[in-house]
Amino acid sequence: MLALGLTLAALIGLSLGLLGGGGSILTVPVLVYVLGVGAKPAIAMSLPVVGVTSLIGAGMHWRRGNVSVPTALVFGLIAMLGAFVGAKFAAFLSGAVQLVLLSVVMLGAALSMLRGSRREAESTAPVRLALLIPVALGVGMLTGLVGIGGGFLVVPALVLLARVPMRQAVGTSLLVIAMNSASGFAGYLGTVPFDWIFLAGFTSAAVAGALVGTALVSRVPQLALKRGFSVLLLVMGAFVLYRNSF
Q1: Domain range spanning residue 68?
Q2: How far, rounded to the nearest angstrom, does the alpha carbon of residue 216 sit from its chain's CA centroid?
Q3: Cβ neighbours of 192 (radius 10 Å)
Q4: Which of 15, 67, 221, 230 makes an SS bond possible with 23, Cβ 3.0 to 4.6 Å?
């Protein structure tokens, strides 16, 4: 089971590197249903996995000039506040409720990725700060509550609301996810137990996958990849919802 879990961790990192998000949403189901980790520890443990992996991927995108650091700092700092609050609020929810919320987010992410070709067209409208702030807070809250990076929301928000060119949105989203995840993890410290050795191994496997994904991003047809991944999210989201609703 451990070998399978590490393999899946590498695939999570691969999708993060290729898509700038999305893969992180599978981390919790892998930890819970493949490796038998409890729901609350799994949600908390997913955050450093996603954060470190995203930071490595962001560094590689930055070397290619595909990261808007000022935009990431503005969006990320607001999201960090939401993530910390969300992690603290999660203490009042059961693990089953958090997994139901995660399943709803997974289904929403799948639909978002299926419609991405319309939503992610580059915008020439002015920066819409009034909408950017609540979106960033919402992404942060989701990170703290259910242990996701929120890249499927960050990328279109950066393009449509912050006017970040699409070629930079993926790399910028990875930096935002790293900041967001760090804050959410800080909110969980001291409230749930961690297996630090296992966490280090799982994270290392995800980082290896992210390095490969980032290197391949220009060679893989993004539309086909997103459609296939969205179908996987639909199946996994329905499975998690079923397991925690009956």
Answers
A1: 2-243
A2: 19
A3: 18
A4: 15
Q: 18 near 92, Cβ under 8 Å? A: no
Q: Return the half-sphere exposure (C-beta side, CA atoms, 13 A cut-off) of residue 203.
A: 19
Greatest Cα-to-Cα distance within the chain, rounded to the nearest angstrom: 50
Query: 159, 187, 209, 163: which is closest to 151 by C-alpha?
Result: 159
Count of structural domains within the chain: 1
Count of other CB atoms within 10 angstroms of residue 93: 16
The reported pTM is 0.82
Buried b (16+ CB within 10 A) or exposed e, 52-78: bbbbbbbbbbbeeebbbeebbebbbeb
